[in-house]
């Protein structure tokens, strides 16, 4: 389990400060081009970690999107693999370690509260319910159902070739760990959350926090890797919303719909043809069709990319214990050693929140040529240090994901006009994020005002609206990175195409973007400009 203590954080800060001092001793001019880039990225990442220390207790440690109440079971179920007896013993050890980890989590929750950093009130019912879900079912109660952790442990135990006595002994150890470590730890968490819920307010933006404006500006700079102000990002969002609305009107005419754009949005939201049933059959159909879309895309990748990922990717449904609070879709990277594939998770809790017309764009974003392709390629890079292979710059990574929704249009996909509308709806969603994120955290919009903006300006189903705004509230600034990153990747591509003319190679451009792993947008621009000049020189 992670060490979440202030002592560990202080030690890490000291190490990072020493690393920056060490970097000063490098003869940068003696390094080759690849090492120079690695040196530069290491310095940026280390400085970012150091600068972020002033906000150590500002990120809500318990929230509905990535809080520890769901990270613990998610890690054990999805990441902790069992292939030999020592693995199952390590699983039990981690169950036993939940007690100490929860002590640190609760200490950090209280430190945040002392600083005046308390999540908005809407967070508490969601995280309390998710916490209760973890300790619901056997062996925690006699409801007749197994808890998610108990099911997972027994399934992994059964995969080992053990004698009945060995399996029984391990099962009893796990049961004991669940009852004496996991259950009381979660009960303490629930008690603390119920207490804190009573003092939480309905103010949603981080403007309410001490030094909230400075914190939000730091978040914007961190996520976008630019110096754009909140006001500039807000305007970029408004401009793109207007542009995409115009493109949607074209599709509305193409399908022969009579009425205005708001009428079309309501038709898209409510017509049953655009969703599968809220049944096991409907969910299975969605997963199967998402897999088929990704398989079709794989066939055309070599025409647009020279570098392809080696790691496999699978499509899975978000597990029941966390699906009510989780986002509609997300990606989990593959294991470095190839033992676990990348995973595109689709949240099928309510099928009306997963419209069919968005299925293509969502699969391309989370799968290929989106997150799986970019992250797997980064992890598989050779000749670069590990930190660079694992680096994350949100504007680059999420910008690539959004660019990967757009690119298939040029590749001949989105043949159904409603799927093309879905592509635009997904892009519109990211443009609207620029407006509502800055609205919430800079302009002091309420949660309800932000939801109303999405309801008026996007066709997304009602279930998307509140869940999305609640995400932006607890992850200030993160949502702005998508559109900012995509616009940069696309504009650099078009500038390169104009500069090179017939010599422009789309495969070469994509490989240049991907071949060094994630980058801040300014360094990406420098790299692409260098690639263009090199191709000009080569003639």
UniProtKB/TrEMBL annotation:
It comes from the Bacteria. InterPro entries: DUF885. This is DUF885 domain-containing protein. Pfam families: DUF885.
